[in-house]
Every structure is written in structure tokens, then in C-alpha cells.
TrEMBL record:
Domain of life of the organism encoding this protein: Bacteria
PANTHER family associated with the record: ABC TRANSPORTER ATP-BINDING PROTEIN ALBC-RELATED
InterPro entries for the chain: AAA+_ATPase (IPR003593), ABC_transporter-like_ATP-bd (IPR003439), ABC_transporter-like_CS (IPR017871), ABC_Transporter_VariousFunc (IPR051782), P-loop_NTPase (IPR027417)
Keyword terms: ATP-binding, Nucleotide-binding, Transport
Domain ABC transporter residues, every copy: 2-230
Protein name per the record: ABC transporter ATP-binding protein
Gene3D superfamilies: P-loop containing nucleotide triphosphate hydrolases
Pfam family, any one: ABC_tran
Family annotation (CDD domains): ABC_DR_subfamily_A
SMART domains: AAA
Molecular function, one GO term: ATP binding
Entry keyword Ribosomal protein: no
Length: 289
């Protein structure tokens, strides 16, 4: 279990994390979602002890960053996604994977298997200086997999990847979750997170403004684009309009008979609608306008 207790971190007067309390379990994929510059990377850097909070602490399996020995111990348990700039241009991809496997004492997960799983065999023997951005990105992800640590922190892992590689890595993330890894990932690819994240934390104003259980059966909503006709039909009902002009009316708040009446009126007025659960993109629009 990874815990953040009363964590506050400010850069001067800019309070980026304001008394944050969080608990993470093994075997869960947690998405960190917020607009640019909100504090996703800062949160990850605090967990890694690259930044020390002014208040509060991080604890993993009962150990905090207190002594150098604690730090070494925690860094064996937690691995973060390297930055592309941290790669060594004159080393091959395979060298990088072996390096991470050695540093994190991974003896269980064979590097060659990771290369096969991530379809890197045709380039992993070449020097990194010859790689495209997407190839480097896949290598950075493969390095975390090679570390095989119980906690994996992934900041924008899908950046610059084509749809096939996004799908490949998404699939691998689910395998890692099946191996009981705790995966915390900052991502702007909301529809992708929607597919597999167990939990999504929306950050804002130094706080976690929503801790969404993405696997829970959410209430369903009647959704449509706002227009004077739609607003007229729905007047008297408790709907909300998101900043992107999407109307959401929770079905739980209307009876079957009234719903039938609304749907008939929408069809008559030629207004397109759908009945769905609220998704991460809708929530993003709701929280950040
Ligand atoms: N080393 C630093 N010194 C001063 N301010 C910083 C530093 N690092 C980050 N900040 C500030 O902290 C805030 C949060 O930045 P952070 O990088 O955590 O955001 P983010 O949510 O990860 O953004 P992005 O989506 O762009 O990656 C921003 O206001 C940023 O300017």
C-alpha cells in the first residue's frame, strides 16, 4: 500500500499540492488527470522523493523517506518512466533494458520476453541515437517493465505513440495490473484511460477534486448538445450544461413515464441524444472550463 499523508508542496507562493491524502493499492491502475501545469508531475516527483514536501509524507509498505537506507529501499520498489533525454544515445535499447533489469534486481521477467511482447526485436539491437520519438517512447516504457518493480509511475507514457502502439502498451498495462503492480499514470489521453483505469484522480487547485471509481457502474445520463429547443423540452428537469455545451440529465432523477415523454419530444424536435454513463472526457469538461 502506498500512502500520501497530508502532503503539501509549494514552489514559492504557488501551492501545487495542498494537504493531499491518498491511498493506493497494489493491482490498480490509477489515472492522474488535469490541465497542463496543475501538478501531475509534481505529485509523481513527490512520490519518487525528487521533491520533498514542506508538510506530510509518503509511505510505502510502512517505510517512509527518512534515512538514506529507506530511500534506497523505496527506490527498489518504485520505478518511474525515464525521460527520453535520459537515454544514452550510444547504447542500444537492449543495453538500456538490461541496465534497468540489473538496477532493480529483476530476475523474474526475461528482457527478451519484454522485447517480444513490445514488438521491439527489429530495432532494439541498434543504438538509441537512430530511434524515432515513438521508438524511444516504447523503449522507456519497456525499461519500466524490465525493472519489474511493484510500483510503476508513468508520466505521459502514450505521448507521441501511434494508435497501434497505444493499444500495445494499453494491453501490457492490463497484464502488469494482473501481476499486481500498482500503476499510476498521468495522461491526457482520456478515452484511453477510460478503457482500463480502475480509478481516475482529477487534480485542481492543489487538491484531488474527484476520485472517480472508473469500474463502478455509474449512473446513466441522457446526453445531447444544448440548444434552445432542447432546453425548452428539459425545462423543469434537473439537468446540467457542461462548458462544452453538452447537456447531462441523470436518468435516476426522472421516472420511466417522464423519460418516455422527453424522448418523444426530442424525436419530434429532431434532436439527437444518447443514453450513456458519464465519461472521463465529460468530467474533464465539467471540472476545467
Ligand atoms: N521546479 C519548479 N520550480 C518552480 N515551479 C515549478 C517547478 N516544477 C513545476 N512547477 C510549477 O508547478 C505547477 C505544476 O507543474 P507540473 O509540472 O506538476 O504540472 P503537470 O500537471 O504535470 O503539467 P503537464 O500536463 O504540462 O505535464 C506549475 O505551475 C509549474 O509551473
Amino acid at each position: 500500500m502506498l500512502n500520501l499523508k497530508d502532503v503539501t508542496l509549494a514552489f514559492g507562493k504557488n501551492v501545487v499540492l495542498d494537504d493531499i491524502n491518498l491511498q493506493f493499492k497494489q493491482g490498480e491502475i490509477v489515472g492522474l488527470v488535469a490541465p497542463n501545469g496543475t501538478g501531475k508531475s509534481t505529485l509523481i516527483n513527490v512520490i519518487l522523493h525528487n521533491l520533498t514536501p514542506q508538510k506530510g509524507f509518503i509511505e510505502y509498505e510502512g517505510t517512509r523517506y527518512q534515512t538514506q537506507k529507506d530511500t534506497i529501499k523505496l527506490h527498489q520498489e518504485i520505478c518511474s518512466f525515464p525521460e527520453q533525454n535520459d537515454l544514452f544515445p550510444f547504447m542500444t535499447g537492449r543495453d538500456h533494458l538490461n541496465l534497468y533489469a540489473d538496477l532493480w534486481h529483476n530476475s523474474e521477467k526475461p528482457v527478451e520476453q519484454i522485447i517480444t511482447d513490445l514488438q521491439m526485436a527489429d530495432y532494439v539491437g541498434h543504438k538509441v541515437e537512430t530511434y524515432s520519438l515513438g521508438m524511444k517512447q516504447r523503449l522507456c516504457f519497456a525499461m519500466v517493465v524490465a525493472a519489474n518493480s511493484p510500483v510503476m509511475l508513468l508520466d505521459e507514457v502514450m505521448n507521441g505513440l501511434d494508435p497501434q502502439n497505444v493499444a500495445l502498451i494499453s494491453h501490457m498495462l492490463l497484464d502488469l495490473k494482473g501481476e499486481n503492480k500498482l500503476i499510476i499514470m498521468a495522461s491526457h489521453l482520456l478515452s484511453n484511460l477510460q478503457e482500463y483505469a480502475d480509478r481516475v484522480l482529477f487534480m485542481g487547485h492543489g487538491q484531488i477534486i474527484e476520485d472517480l471509481d472508473n469500474k463502478e457502474q455509474h449512473n446513466r445520463y441522457l446526453k445531447m448538445q444544448s440548444s434552445p429547443k432542447a432546453v425548452k423540452i428539459l425545462s423543469g428537469y434537473d439537468f446540467e450544461t457542461l462548458p462544452n455545451n453538452l447537456i447531462l440529465l441523470p436518468l435516476a432523477k426522472i421516472g420511466q413515464e417522464k423519460l418516455t415523454q422527453i424522448l418523444t419530444e426530442l424525436v419530434d424536435a429532431d434532436i439527437q441524444y444518447s443514453v450513456e454513463r458519464i465519461d472521463i472526457e465529460d468530467l474533464f469538461n465539467k471540472f476545467y472550463n
